[in-house]
Task: structure prediction
Amino acid sequence: MITTILKWAAIPALILVALLSGLAGRYEGLLNLTICLSAVFLVQYAAWLKDYGWAAVCVVVVIVFSPLFLIAKIFLLLCLTGLAAVVTMFAAFRPQPVASV
Result:
């Protein structure tokens, strides 16, 4: 029960802080780093719970608020999307055992 509440409260809290990070002035970089590190913690926690949808959302938050340049973020998201597509294709087209008659 408490983990469900924390899970549903963490993402809106990150989004709210992200929206207000532009108002932080010279502390915006530190605030973005804090958002990135808290999302890293949430990725680990979601992977431990085997909730991979939440882990994927948190990975996107980590990439968006990381201190990388914009072009590096775009290529990183593109590579992760391609990797997810390849893994999905391997899972969908793996050989299935044939039932013997």
